[in-house]
Design goal:
The complex is a heterodimer of chains A (912) and B (125). With 912 residues, chain A is mainly alpha-helical. In chain A, 67% of the residues lie in helices and 5% in strands. Chain A starts with a helix and ends in a 6-residue tail after the last strand. Chain B has a single domain, classed as 3-Layer(aba) Sandwich (Rossmann fold). Chain B contains five helices and five strands. Chain B has a five-stranded parallel β-sheet, with helices on both faces. In chain B, helix 1 links the parallel strand 1 and strand 2. In chain B, helix 2 runs parallel beside helix 3. The chains are: A mainly alpha (912), B alpha/beta (125).
């Protein structure tokens, strides 16, 4: 039997062994004795990073660019140093939010956006396809090389018809194994313990094989490192491999490669799968962050020696440096070692392909196909768990075929490394939305979307399309003259930037566009409610209370039974029943099928669904059964335990302080009113005291003058005595009137209302005051009507008003020519009188004030000595009396033309 | 040269009593009933002393006091404020505006006369 049969059979047997390992691990896991719960296994699984590209390609790269191979190892080593907080946070977020893929992570962070999830998935498929093609190529080539070199009679004339196409068979077999490893059953956490154990085992195999080759080459073909390097240095062409000169793009390229490798080791779908999704215990990160770099170091140890040995041994033979690892043992007639090395390479390729396509199938089904399917067929009721598995298997086959097609169409024209770099640059686009998004909660969905789309557009243009052009898929002029002849759009010299090598150039522009848009759009964008909640959940994942914050997101109605049915459709009825029972038991709850599901139960179901179909789809599904408002803005305020409480507290505080402010304002107003009243009272007392002091002053002054001037003339004496008497009278009146006013204003005045004749009252008043008119020779005219004018009133009070008006009139009239006329006045409702004089009149500015307390219209000082002195209260009291009778009183006057005081009272029956 | 006294008050009987008291001391007396007239009188002939009531029409006593003091030429004019409002605030306000003394109504005539004489630098018995 020729090698052409032995090698494929050994390969399949080896894969079978892997499957046995995986199966065993799964059995152990089911039995509760997990193999995976172990930091060493975790670290070895991370070594899925070292693909066949590393295995074969880094030697190829070292053979051509010397230390140019190092960034691929250096990047992960550097970033592993900050895993303890960066990876720790990502894992914590993923566990809390039941995130199962990188697309899910980004979608979930940005408001569970299905659009973002789908977009990321699409980018991953496009970006990773070259990488899978690379693995197929590596396996196919290594197999062909091995067979060709071992089976000397077989001629190597490259791949021929499809049925003899090694790569196609490799793709089909790997698809089969991926299905076996990854989709035997549907697990909500998307964890695959068997697969992890198998790839950890493969990591050991590939490292072992590589170390064996290294040792063999160094000590078998040469006499150790010293001998090897001495011979290298003797060759001037090889000598330059030991410096940066050999590196295309020099330092800058070296650093951009390192950066890409840093991002790739975290955000390649398979790396995210093993680092985050398959992580059992975040504490394992501690060991991984030193053991993984150590693993890489061990891998690196012999890269350069093998490359140099290949260059020395195969000098001038045109041997592909990518195959040195395999061809050197063959050259040394170590057939079994060559087979072992081949298996190592197979391990590197299969582990990568299997994990990658499983991770991608989860993404494609959860974030691309299911959301669309559920949107169009949300009403269907059958059990979907089986359908999802079928779907994923189909996706795996399609992905493998796509990888194969890429390899067939493009793979021949590129070295392994340049293909891989394209993928690295693609996944690096996920770094900004993830790394910035978990530390700055201000990044919005639209910002992430804008950044990603821009970054990928640049990537597509500068790397993907450029690689198509190199392969001759599109016209060469695309590269040399830019699309449509636009030179500034040349894919490797955008905007005329030519100082970088193509990779650095692409990284520079895509990262600039991605990060720039992400930050800029975030600054001007507003997040919706779900976005804000998710952003807080992610950024504050370690804060107490952030966990389970989703519970408040659902405020609609759904029965426990409906919720369970929904879950059953995706994870199967038995599992759904079990999950619900466990959950309710854990929470010490008893709910029958018809009961309304509490918010936390809905959230629990959503999380379980998230594991099965992704966060965006889970959200769509749950909202399809939850009736009513899924989330209102008011609800949002209550969310996020502590955060919301803080907001609520501060709102309450704000409310309280507003209430306090209002109360303070009311108090202030009340106080001001009180102060105003107090001021008015003070003013009144002050005014009253002033009014009382004025006559008192005269009385005291004249009394003292009389006392001190006994020799005074009799005329003066009498005059002064008269003043004293008049002032004393005025003082008496003042006191009476003040008391009257106080009684009226305080409501203590007694009113004796009876039927009175207004005409009769006026006659009485005139009789009382007639003497005053006669004394001053002022005429008083009254045309009294024949009929009485009857109304209800307090007789004495009305007479008081009349006397007051008459005495005021006579006071201001000029002696001898003064005339005062009393006139009847009437309107349909009212009746009253007017007192008209021909005195000096009242200045316009005083008209409004005459009824004010203590207001006196000043008259010439010489006048009025024979009439009672004014108190300034008379008219005020008149006004109060008339108002008390529901009537009104006013004055009309023009300076020099006398004054008319009129009062009107309601007619009979309307008065008080 | 006789001593000029200006009486500013709107209560005729008080003016009368003050006129009597001042004339008896041998002073030359003018009297007015409101603030504007008072300032006009000061303008016409600078008095030695003003007996100034606070509650007067047109311009109150404080304003008149302030206006008199605003003219440096009136620096030596003595001003005694008279008021029926005896609160301390009002006294202080008057003194702050440049009044020389303050008398509360009703006043003791003897004391008022003594105060006027004293302020004018005349010896009393």
């Amino acid at each position: 039997m020729g090698w052409q049969w032995i090698v494929p059979i050994v390969s399949v047997l080896y894969l079978g062994l892997l499957f046995a390992v995986a199966y065993h691990a799964d059995r152990r896991a089911s039995a509760g004795r997990s193999l995976v719960n172990n930091p060493t296994i975790y670290t070895l699984s991370i070594a899925v990073y070292c693909t066949s590209w590393t295995y074969y390609g880094s030697v190829g790269r070292a053979a051509e660019t010397g230390i140019g191979f190092l960034p691929i190892f250096l990047g992960p080593t550097l970033i592993a140093a900050i895993w303890w907080f960066l990876l720790g946070k990502i894992i914590a977020i993923s566990k809390v939010n039941h995130i199962t893929s990188i697309a899910d992570f980004i979608s979930s962070r940005y408001g569970k956006s299905p659009l973002l999830g789908g977009l990321v998935t699409l980018f991953v498929v496009i970006g990773i396809m070259p990488y899978i093609a690379l693995q197929l190529k590596a396996v196919a080539v290594s197999l062909d090389v091995l067979v060709h070199h071992l089976d000397q009679e077989l001629s190597w004339d490259g791949p021929a018809a499809p049925w003899s196409d090694t790569a196609l068979y490799v793709a089909m077999i790997l698809a089969l194994f991926s299905i076996l490893f990854g989709t035997r059953h549907l697990d909500a956490s998307e964890r695959h313990e068997g697969m992890v154990t198998a790839i950890a085992f493969e990591s050991l195999v590939k490292l072992g094989a590589f170390l064996f080759v290294g040792l063999f080459v160094t000590y078998g073909l040469f006499d150790g490192f010293g001998d090897l390097f001495r011979r290298t240095l003797a060759d001037p062409q090889l000598r330059r491999l030991m410096t940066f000169e050999a590196m295309p793009g020099g330092y800058v390229s070296w650093f951009s490669m390192t950066l890409l490798a840093m991002m790739a080791v975290m955000f390649l779908p398979r790396q995210f799968q093993v680092l985050v999704v398959e992580n059992v215990n975040p504490a394992h990160i501690r060991q991984a962050s030193w053991l993984f770099p150590l693993y890489l170091l061990a891998f690196n140890l012999f890269v350069l020696p093998i490359a140099l040995a290949g260059r020395l041994i195969f000098a001038g033979q045109g041997m592909d440096p990518d195959t040195y690892v395999l061809t050197l043992p063959i050259h040394g007639d170590q057939v079994w070692l060559a087979l072992f090395v081949y298996l190592g390479g197979l391990s590197a390729a299969t582990s990568m392909v299997i994990v990658e396509v499983i991770a991608m199938s989860t993404m494609v089904s959860n974030d691309l196909i299911l959301p669309l399917l559920l949107r169009f067929r949300s009403a269907f009721r059958e059990d979907l768990s089986g359908m999802i598995l079928t779907l994923r298997r189909g996706i795996i086959v399609v992905l493998m075929l796509l990888g194969y097609l890429y390899f067939r169409l493009l793979g021949e024209s590129h070295t392994l490394v340049s293909i891989g770099i394209i993928s690295f640059a693609a996944v690096a686009q996920f770094a900004p939305p993830i790394l910035i998004g978990i530390y700055w909660q201000g990044v919005s969905r639209r910002a992430a979307l804008a950044g990603l789309v821009a970054g990928f557009a640049v990537w597509t243009h500068t790397l993907l399309l450029a690689s198509f052009a190199k392969s001759g898929w599109i016209a060469e002029s695309f590269l040399t003259h830019g699309p449509w002849g636009m030179a500034w759009l040349k894919p490797q010299a955008l905007f005329g930037l030519t100082v970088f090598d193509p990779i650095t150039h692409s990284v520079f522009w895509s990262m600039l566009a991605n990060t720039g848009l992400l930050v800029l759009v975030s600054l001007f964008d507003r997040q919706n409610a779900v976005e804000q909640i998710q952003a807080l959940n992610f950024v504050n994942v370690f804060e107490k209370g952030a966990r389970g914050g989703n519970e408040y997101l659902w405020s609609g109605f759904v029965s426990v039974g409906d919720l369970k049915k929904l879950l059953a459709r995706f994870i199967g009825p038995i599992q759904a029943e079990l999950d619900f029972a466990n959950y309710l038991q854990h929470r010490l709850l008893k709910l029958d099928e018809m009961a309304q599901a509490p918010a936390h139960l809905v959230a629990f179901a959503e999380k379980r669904l998230t594991g099965a179909i992704g966060s965006a789809s889970a959200r769509v599904m749950v909202s399809s059964v939850v009736k009513g408002e899924e989330l209102d803005l008011h609800g949002v305020m209550r969310i996020l335990d502590e955060t919301s409480q803080v907001i609520e507290y501060s709102q309450r505080l704000e409310l309280k302080s507003r209430q306090l402010e209002a109360a303070t304002r009311q108090l202030q107003e009340a106080n001001e009113r009180l102060q105003e009243l107090d001021r008015l009272k003070d003013e009144f007392i002050s005014t009253v005291s002033h009014e009382l002091r004025t006559p008192l002053t005269s009385i005291r002054a004249f009394s003292e003058i009389l006392r001190d001037n006994e020799e005074m003339e009799a005329g003066d004496r009498r005059r002064f005595t008269e003043i004293i008497i008049k002032e004393a009278e005025r003082l008496t009146r003042l006191v009476n009137q003040i008391l009257d006013l106080a009684r009226i204003e305080s409501g203590k005045m007694e009113w004796h209302v009876s039927r009175v004749d207004l005409v009769e009252l006026m006659r009485d008043a005139m009789d009382a005051i007639l003497q005053l008119f006669q004394n001053k020779s002022v005429r008083l005219i009254f045309h009294s009507p024949e009929q009485p004018v009857m109304l209800l009133a307090d007789r004495d009070k009305i007479i008081q008003v009349m006397i007051n008006l008459l005495s005021n009139a006579v006071k201001f009239c000029e002696s001898g020519i003064g005339v005062v006329e009393v006139q009847m006045r009437a309107t349909p409702e009212e009746v009253g009188m007017a007192v008209v004089d021909n005195g000096p009149g009242i200045p316009e500015e005083d008209l409004e004030k005459v009824f004010e307390k203590f207001h006196q219209v000043h008259q010439a000082r010489d006048e009025g000595r024979d009439v009672p002195l004014g108190t300034g209260l008379g008219l005020t009291i008149c006004q109060r009396i008339i108002e008390r009778h529901q009537g009104r009183i006013w004055v009309e006057s023009r300076l020099g033309q006398g004054a008319t005081f009129t009062f009107l009272l309601p007619r009979d029956g309307k008065s008080a | 040269m006789s001593i000029e006294i200006l009486i500013v008050d709107d209560a005729p009987n008080i003016v009368l009593s003050l006129e009597f008291l001042m004339k008896k001391e041998g002073f030359s007396v003018r009297s007015v009933g409101d603030g504007e007239a008072a300032l006009q009188a000061v303008e016409e002939k600078k008095p030695h002393l003003v007996l100034l009531d606070v509650m007067i029409p047109k311009k109150n006593g404080y304003e008149v006091c302030e206006a008199i003091r605003a003219d440096p030429a009136n620096r030596e004019v003595k001003i005694i404020m008279l008021t029926a409002k005896g609160r301390e605030v009002e006294q202080e306000k008057g003194l702050a505006l440049g009044a020389d003394d303050y008398v509360t109504k009703p006043f003791a005539t003897r004391e008022l006369v003594l105060k006027v004489r004293d302020m004018l630098g005349l010896k009393s018995d």
